[in-house]
Amino acid sequence: GINAEYGRWSTCHIKQWLTSRESSNKQTKQIQMDSAKNNQERAEGKTEEWSGWAKDKIGGLIGNEQMQAEGKGEQLKGEAKQEHAKFKERVIGTTEQIGGAIKKDVGKLIGNEQMEAEGKATELKGQAREHVNK
Asked: What pLDDT is attached to residue 9?
């Protein structure tokens, strides 16, 4: 039945999956690079938001409606940039959660406590990343 099929899958494929650590390390490095880019995008967005806010207020003080409008536009653009970066971080978090859950379950299935613990850690890291970027 299902257990026999699952047993065949585990002997045929889990060993191959376990040996793909190099690929997993490359993916981890890519996630770290993407996350760093997202953090930079958030910082740029925050700077643009604050710059726009200042331009809006100065325009209001000196009665320059065009400056105010430009400032509001920059502020909205900065906010959008931050939201885009947060969305990408949530996607990374979801990916980490799913990958971690799979690794945890495979570790449990084959009796590898270290793999199970690493999977759980990755799953929790993904949950935290999602939570921080709401």
From this structure: 52
